[in-house]
Each structure stands twice: as C-alpha cells, then as structure tokens.
C-alpha cells in the first residue's frame, strides 16, 4: 500500500493552527501524540449515546458500555497478538503497568539477595518502581550498560549481567531519548533460558512498530494509549496468563472481588482482579478507535515512515555547521533525534524554537541516570510521528541554523 502521509494531516484537527504566528510543527510525539478525528468522535459518541458504568448494571446502557469496554480489551489483545483478552489489564498507562507488576508480582517473587536487571537507557518509570521494590524486598538493581553517545546496549556484557540471582529483566523496546530500537525478542529469549521473568516497556514502540508478544516471548509488556493516537489516562499491561494467575491483587475495591465479608474477601480471576474501581471506560473506547486507525495504516508502514523521518532528520542535522552533538545510533534509529547545539543550552533551543512554532522537548526526558552517564544535564529532542513531513524537518533545521547564528556559534 502506498500512503500519502501528508494527506493524513487532515485527520488531525489540532495540527492546523499557527503558534506564535507560525504554522505549528509538532515534534513532541515521544511525550504524547495528537489524536485523529475518529478517536475524538468515538469519545463523543460514547458519552452522547452509551455512557454508563460497566460490569454491574443490568440495563441497556450499562450492557452497551460493558460491551464497548470488553471489545476494547479484545482489540488490545489482537493489537499485540496476546493469546486471550484475559491477558490484557487496563491501567492508567505505562507507569502504572510497571508499578502493578512491581507490587503484585515483585512483592511475591523477590527476596533479599535477588537481583533485578535493567538497562542504562530506562525511563524513570522503569527504574523507580524497581527501586521501591528493592527497598521493600532487599533485592538489588543491576544495569546492562549503554555504549556512550551512539546509544546501543553493550550486548557483550549481557552474559555477565544474567546471573542466577537475577529474577526479573525489564527493558525498554525503544529508548525515548536515544531512538535506539532494542532487540527485545533476543533479550527475552536469553533471559527465558535462565528462567528469568521479563518485562518490555513498549511506551515508545506500541504505536510505531508491529508488536507480537508471543514472538517477543516476554512475560509482561506495557504501553500507554496517549503515545499512539489514543486518549490520556489509559494504557495496557499485558501479562502471560499463567503468571497473572499467580499474582495477588494490586489494589482493592469494587469490580475486582468475587465476594466480600467483613473480615475477608475473595478475588476474581485476571484481568478483573487487577482492575479495582470504575475503569476509564471512555478511554478504552478511544484507545480501541486509535488501534483501528493505526492498523488501518499498517504498523509496518508506520515503522518504515518513522525510520525514514528519523534518518532524514539525523542526516540533515549532521550537516549543521555550527557544531552539533547527536545522540543515538547512526542507522536503524526510531523516529526521533536528541541533540545539543554547541554552547547553547537545550532549554534555549526549545524556547526559541517554540517562538518559531516548533514544539520540541528539552530536559533529561526522565532519563537522568542515562544523561549523567553521557555527561550531560539535558538534550533537545525532536520526535516524529507519521503525520510529520520532511518539509517540516527542513524548516526545523533552518530554525536551528537561525538559533546558532543568534547565539553566535
Ligand atoms: C520509554 C518510556 N517508558 C515509560 C514512559 C512513561 O509513560 P506514561 O507517562 O504514559 O506512563 C515513557 C513516557 O515518556 C517512555 O517514553
């Protein structure tokens, strides 16, 4: 299928506006993506026609809301090729999914002396929940190193990291600050041979690449709806059914129980055991529409286009004369570039770019340990999605040249 990517911009009302008098160039997609009209329409339709609470009503609207919510679960299972909708838990997003695993799986399975293996390129969401678990359990964190500015995992160190004390290996699929795409299926296979449980942080990949949890062979995989055209406030935790069934509840409340007595209760099976309280029903409906929209375009097509934009931007920025430090792999990168202009603070770059209508992000990108390892406080980041164009990248590069002139570098 040949797609004219620029025509898709018509699906995204928000893109058609001026910011500070200039046409908006939205390059902050790794933080959150924009929403197509079909997602906005699905949310509106749900609230105008079907809104009710799920699972406990016996009236028509409640039945419809329940059907829509469970249809979204089945759609999410299909989206990542899970074996069953029962392997899909709705969460608030990637962060909550990881916290759920750290609480429910971690508290049961980790003890003093055990180790949790992470990589040096993890987002704080895939570090801090494990630090809290380590403090509770006496387990230790160990890290697979990253190879400097080029931003690859140092796989020559994997064997020495995968010791018998390691009980869990949690890794990001795509780095949000380097654009590295990690070989998660290989990493999970290596861990599985040693009986190590695995978690893949797919926050940056689920809306960008085809994801097949059976092919990856992970025990857990997490992602956020808002980074893939869906609404904020909802995400997915995939858990292998055999593992989920061994886990105690995460939070207590309505919806997750079979029966409650004054002094004790019994729980439903997964996934409902892990979804206490009224869920984000409209969020699930919006996410369903987003998954349909993305699969209509085809995630292999999106992946290819993303990588073309990433490669184009990397090459274009490499040619800037005033001095630029680029982070992440030279080839095979995802659709984002992190950089520093010589002698210009990332925040200055982002502030001036905003005045030209270009939305970038500057800071540590929730990767403080990685930034320290690279010897920087922050970087500027341009992150793309399929509605971005090479014309926008050219205009962005011209803005960077202007910034270099302005700051005299
Ligand atoms: C790699 C990665 N993991 C986790 C997260 C956290 O996602 P959320 O804030 O949606 O929970 C992000 C968000 O930027 C991310 O890029």
How would you describe the overall organization of this protein?
This protein is α/β, with parallel strands linked by helices and 409 residues long. The protein has 13 helices and 17 strands. The chain has helices at 37-50, 60-79, 94-109, 128-137, 158-161, 184-193, 213-216, 241-244, 281-297, 299-318, 346-355, 368-374, 390-406, and strands at 18-19, 22-23, 25-26, 88-91, 115-119, 140-144, 166-172, 197-201, 220-224, 235-239, 257-260, 265-267, 324-327, 336-341, 358-359, 361-363, 379-383. The strands form five sheets. Strands 4-10-9-8-7-5-6 form a seven-stranded mixed β-sheet, sandwiched between helices. A hairpin with a 2-residue loop joins strand 1 (18-19) and strand 2. The chain is globular and about 70 Å long. The termini are far apart. The mean pLDDT is 96. Pyridoxal-5'-phosphate (PLP) is lined by residues 30, 93-95, 123, 125-126, 172, 176, 201, 203-204, 224.
Provide key terms for this protein.
409 residues; alpha/beta; 7-stranded mixed β-sheet; 13 helices; 17 strands; binds pyridoxal-5'-phosphate
Strands, helices and their partners?
Layout lengths: L17 E2 L2 E2 L1 E2 L10 H14 L9 H20 L8 E4 L2 H16 L5 E5 L8 H10 L2 E5 L13 H4 L4 E7 L11 H10 L3 E5 L11 H4 L3 E5 L10 E5 L1 H4 L12 E4 L4 E3 L13 H17 L1 H20 L5 E4 L8 E6 L4 H10 L2 E2 L1 E3 L4 H7 L4 E5 L6 H17 L3
Helix pairs in contact: 1-9, 2-9, 3-4, 10-13
The protein binds pyridoxal-5'-phosphate.
The site of pyridoxal-5'-phosphate (PLP) has 13 residues, from α3.
Provide the gyration radius in Å.
22 Å
Q: What's the total count of β strands?
A: 17
Bound molecules: pyridoxal-5'-phosphate
What is the overall shape?
A: globular
Main sheet: strand order: 4-10-9-8-7-5-6
The number of helices is 13
State the helical fraction: 25-40%
């Amino acid at each position: 299928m040949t797609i004219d990517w620029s025509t898709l911009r018509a699906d995204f009302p928000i893109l058609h506006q001026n910011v500070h008098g200039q046409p908006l160039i939205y390059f902050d997609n790794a933080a959150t993506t924009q929403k197509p009209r079909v997602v906005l329409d699905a949310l509106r339709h749900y609230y105008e026609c079907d809104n009710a609470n799920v699972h406990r009503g016996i009236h028509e609207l409640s039945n419809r809301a329940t059907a829509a919510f469970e249809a979204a679960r089945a759609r999410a299972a299909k989206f990542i090729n899970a074996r069953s909708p029962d392997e899909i838990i709705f969460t608030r997003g990637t962060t909550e999914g990881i916290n759920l695993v750290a609480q429910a799986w971690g508290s049961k399975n980790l003890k003093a002396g055990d180790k949790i293996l992470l990589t040096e390129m993890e987002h704080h969401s895939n570090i801090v929940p494990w630090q809290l678990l380590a403090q509770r359990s006496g387990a230790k964190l160990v890290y697979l190193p990253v190879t400097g500015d080029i931003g690859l995992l140092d796989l020559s160190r994997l064997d020495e990291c995968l010791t018998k004390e390691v009980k869990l290996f949690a890794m990001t699929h795509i780095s949000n600050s380097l654009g590295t795409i990690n070989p998660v299926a290989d990493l999970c296979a290596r861990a599985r041979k040693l009986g190590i449980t695995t978690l893949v942080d797919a926050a940056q990949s689920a809306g960008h690449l085809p994801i097949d949890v059976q092919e990856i062979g992970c025990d857990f995989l997490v992602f956020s709806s808002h980074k893939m055209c869906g609404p904020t406030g909802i995400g997915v935790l995939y858990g292998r059914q055999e593992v989920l069934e061994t886990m105690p509840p995460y939070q207590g409340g309505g919806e997750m129980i079979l029966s409650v007595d004054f002094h004790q209760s019994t729980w439903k099976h997964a996934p409902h055991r892990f979804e206490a309280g009224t869920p984000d029903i409209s969020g699930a409906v919006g996410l369903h529409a987003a998954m349909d929209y993305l699969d209509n375009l085809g995630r292999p097509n999106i992946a290819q286009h993303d990588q073309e934009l990433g490669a184009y931007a990397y090459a274009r920025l490499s040619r800037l004369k005033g001095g630029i430090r680029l982070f992440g792999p030279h080839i095979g990168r995802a659709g984002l570039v992190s950089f520093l202009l010589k002698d210009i603070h990332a925040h200055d770059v982002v502030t001036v770019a905003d005045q030209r209508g270009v939305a970038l992000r500057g800071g540590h990108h929730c990767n403080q340990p990685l930034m320290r390892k690279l010897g920087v406080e922050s970087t500027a980041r341009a992150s793309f999605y399929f509605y971005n164009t090479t014309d926008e990248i050219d205009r962005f590069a011209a803005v960077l040249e202007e910034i270099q002139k302005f700051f005299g570098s």
